[in-house]
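ERR on first pass: missing label on line 2. Operator R.T. fixed the label and resubmitted. Corrected input:
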Amino acid sequence: MVRFIILRLLQSVIALVGIAILIFVVVRVSGDPALMLATATSTEEDIQQIRVNLGLDKSLPEQFWIFATDVVKGDLGESLFKKKPVTELIGAALPNSIRLVIPSWVVAMLGALLLGVLGATRRDGFLDNGVKFIAILGQALPGFWVAIVAVYFFSVRWQLLPAFGTGGPDHYVLPVLTLAFFLLPGMMRLVRSSMMDVLDSEYVKLARIKGLPEKTIIFKHALRNALIAPLTVAGMLFAGLITGAVIIETVFSWPGIGWVLMEGVLARDFPLVQAIVILVAVFVLGINLLVDITYAYIDPRIRYQKS
Amino acid sequence: MQKKGSDSEITAKPIISGLSRSTRIIRNLTLIIPVTILLVIIIVAIFADLVAPCDPVRMSLPDRLSPPFWAEGGSTEHLLGTDKMGRDILSRLIFGARISLSISLLVILITSFVGTVLGIIGGYLGGRTEAFLMRITDISMAFPPILVAMLLCVSMGPSFATVVVSISLLGWAPYARLIRGETLRLREEDFVSQARTIGSSPIRIMIRHIFPNIINPLIIVMTLQIGLLIITEASLSFLGVGIPPPAPSWGNMINDGRNLVDTAWWISTFPGIAIGLVVLSGNFLGDWLRDKLDPRLRQL
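pass 2 clean. output:
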């Protein structure tokens, strides 16, 4: 197990270096950062000066070395427009994002579990069809559109909830629920199909033959095994959560990371956007690592196969 | 409840051909309706210049914020109303379809090609190559494409090409994962080992023997991807990192109407419905194809 974790950790570090190289190359290939900073009145010397300031006059390997050591030291550069270290800007926005993302995640997971299990145990019944309908609709309608429609009804028309900003608990309702809507349908579908497979398995039939109560069969025997499949998509779920957070924070003017990112993009504040992308990459790798370790812990076959 | 469900499941299996008339009609409708919707939208998108009543980017301030024809104050001149710059919503929807669909098509072609090549190579060769490719695939699937798009948008500026490149950069991963799984299965089949015995080169086996056998799952995933890509493109344009205005895209049209939902609901509503229709149709068609061609892939 220890061997497996060390190997896996090493792979993650290599992957991180790979991503760093990729970001570095993509940015240099797709545009000249100095030209982005130049204004209409900049002369050729000004642009050259910007290049020297940014270290763009050095050779590519040299530039990459500087970039990489800075990242390792935790120095992700300074925002071009706010003139502050990007880590400071990100640090200030992060708690707001967490306050939004965690409740949404909990709501989505509980909802997906509840509806998925209900759907699977009442196959083709009224409830199951309802669950399928939500899943189909949820995957067809863009989340930002749903958020706008929700704002229209709950804030503009019925004036029940605030349309944007942070504040009291009522400010959380719309953003949290609409963000949960990004994750719920896919997860629900997965829980439902995985639960249906498990309910068809031999050991559940045996449990039925033994005469166990239906509740024990569903929650104690079936659900535990049914939850392994949804675990595989934990990584993809994270991608959905980030995407959702960026969109929902923009729609509701929620001052989190997504909002900062959007501001950075609109102002073409390159170091800021790059820093957030790197940060998310680190998170993605970390989550992949955790999922794999959990897997290896649950299923010994994986441990031996990979090492 | 549970008992009843499993009983009907058991009895239903042997007599699939004897499905009741109404079930068969519903099953056919779930194919006919989505295909018709997709065909109509594709034809309209191709012939946008002939079909659209107005120029999608021509502004006309006197006509601004005119509602759809059936609402009070609406006129048949602008069937679905106009936006805050007096541009015709219907025409923008039609030209937006052209942009959204061509982005999706391009991305599907690029990503399915790259994903298939990597998937077959990884699955057939195995070992280090496979481990390496699968690691990249996992990371690509967990990375939000929106962030790549934002990064590229900052360095390249928003454009049609930026959108295609940034979605494609990660979009090959689902294909690679699926195709690799299929290849692993096929690699052990008799016809492949026989081909190996008579001395076929690995490249020949991959192209002549493995590829023809993965076309079905490939088509299924390509179809199921339509919806996802339409939504991704719309999200990017909505956030302002996709198709730059004034060119119409369903995503940036929704953004145009975002702050006007209380006075001019039609600006955001119609593109939202258009997206929903295409995505639903694509998903239904994909589900139907999957049930028809390869029911093993139910998890997709």
